[in-house]
């Protein structure tokens, strides 16, 4: 063969081991190495400091080149194809479109079904409310009046709720009328509060006392703010039994 003959394109020039390592290091840095070569190269990184340095050198060169590049958004069709290849989305028109509308997709049947469900829930709640509330407790009333009929106080007990209202008369200035619960068992009277000068006084029965037949409501005149001892300090000038209303 003449010395001027062109080189055979199918013949690869011989490379030194250093040149082969440099090419392999570049392929590793670019992520282009064949799987077998990449696996062997990764094993060499820990055992061959010189080869590991070659890979780092290529990574630094490529990093400098990447900093000089201007990011360009790929075309919409290219992004679509990448998502399709990754299995994140389906290609357009890859599924047959079903033109039939199911019953639950039609607005009127859907609204009717929703209204029926609401009505059913409301019916269940209405039927369950009496059971949830428990049995109705009776109401009791008492009308307390002074002996000269110049004052009148009405008391009402609904379950454990108590309401007391001044109907006639005036509470003396600097004094208060205190309401007492007197049980038929002879226990000490229990204070329910003070009669309001205007409007009703509302409270709940204290823990430990219950409505039983024979309970009476009484009034005593006390210093402003009520009895300082927890027991009536003045005479009980009005008393009446609680009767079922």
TrEMBL record:
Q: Could you tell me the superkingdom of the organism this chain comes from?
A: Bacteria
State the name under which the record lists this protein: Anti-sigma factor domain-containing protein
Q: Membrane-spanning residues where? A: 110-132
Q: Which residues form the Anti-sigma K factor RskA C-terminal domain?
A: 114-236
* UniProt KW keywords: Membrane, Transmembrane, Transmembrane helix
Return the annotated region ranges for Disordered.
1-20
Which Pfam families would you find in this protein's record? RskA_C (PF10099)
């Amino acid at each position: 063969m003449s010395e001027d003959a062109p080189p055979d394109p199918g013949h690869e020039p011989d490379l030194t081991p250093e040149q082969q390592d440099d090419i392999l290091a570049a392929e590793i840095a670019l992520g282009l190495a064949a799987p077998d070569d990449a696996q062997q190269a990764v094993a060499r990184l820990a055992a061959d400091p010189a080869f590991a340095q070659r890979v780092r050198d290529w990574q630094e060169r490529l990093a400098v080149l990447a900093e000089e590049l201007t990011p360009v958004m790929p075309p919409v069709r290219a992004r679509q194809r990448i998502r399709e290849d990754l299995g994140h989305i389906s290609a357009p028109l890859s599924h047959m479109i079903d033109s039939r509308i199911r019953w639950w997709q039609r607005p009127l049947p859907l609204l009717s079904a929703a209204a029926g469900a609401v009505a059913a829930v409301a019916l269940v709640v209405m039927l369950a409310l009496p059971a949830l509330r428990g049995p109705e407790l009776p109401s009791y009333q008492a009308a307390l009046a002074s002996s000269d009929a110049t004052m009148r106080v009405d008391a009402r007990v609904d379950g454990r709720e108590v309401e007391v209202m001044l109907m006639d008369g005036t509470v003396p200035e600097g004094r208060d009328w205190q309401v007492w619960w007197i049980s038929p068992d002879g226990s000490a009277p229990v204070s329910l509060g003070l009669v309001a000068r205007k409007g009703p006084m509302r409270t709940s029965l204290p823990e430990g006392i219950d409505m039983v037949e024979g309970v009476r409501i009484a009034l005593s005149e006390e210093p402003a703010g009520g009895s300082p001892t927890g027991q009536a300090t003045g005479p009980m000038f009005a008393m009446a039994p609680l009767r079922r209303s």
